[in-house]
Here is the input.
Amino acid sequence: MMSSLPPPPASLVDSGQARHGRYAGVIERLDWSPLAALQSKSWLWRRWHHKRWQYVGIGCDELFIGLAIVDVGWCQTAFAYVFDRRQRKLLADWSADGLRGLQGGVSNEPVKASRSWFRSFGSSLSIQAVDETLQVRVQAGGIDMQAHLSWPASTPFLLAVGPIEGGLSHATQKSPALVVDGWLKAKGQRFSLRGAVGCLDSSNGLLARDTAWRWACAQSPEVGFNLQDGYFGSNENALWLDGQLIPLSRAHFEYQADQPLHPWRVWTDDGLLDLSFEPEGARQQNRNLLIAASYYIQPIGTFHGWVKAEPSAVPRAVERLVGVTEDHRSRW
Here is the structure.
């Protein structure tokens, strides 16, 4: 394990205070209950502001698969989609809402003991940790998938913990490249997932009701990154390069919000990353439920450019690295 970051604390909260910072490794549990600032908040405030989700992305030459289980606080929601990279179109796109606790749940254990699930009208989705792997199962919306994602012991996860304006605190675990095996069936076709690359986002926070972000993520065994600009500042910005976890500074996203399938550019203030993104297609959803609303688009495509381990290093070329960007605005 290589990183300048310290190992994770034993818990998110110590003596009533959040352990804000960036860490290299996996925390056992994301638990905000001892937080002193939370004690004065009402049950209703907690219900409206506590958000948890697990997102899994899987990419290969043929496909990109995205899925998530989200605990919004007052309901449960989930989605799964399959994007055909060669035809540049969605093969399947499913989403559903359900009753929190009855039709789904998101685990407070972010990685090694994770167990998140969703069920609705014959559809099901689960993310469960078993023997140092994540077992991902989807039967929904014409998608039938069994995938196993394992992580190399030599490459650390990122744990980011930080304050939230309009909320209290947020914590997220971002994975390096995960080794994928398994299969997927969609639209009468069967695909092998052996050799694909996966990533995991496990997040748990006491957030503002109005939350927005731009996000970019891509992974390969040699190089990967996670970038966010929005509600969480630069806390979760990181580069994985040859097994080393390198914290990054503020990220910038240059794109046309009204034309999100035009090229993007992303870069960081520290001079360690400068990439262009060429979208191949996107999954998007706009919803207005009166008490809540969201605008979401996740373009799928490839990144090109360069990254560096330190400012004085020779730039490392990045070519055709499969990943996603995202523009997301929610009142939840």
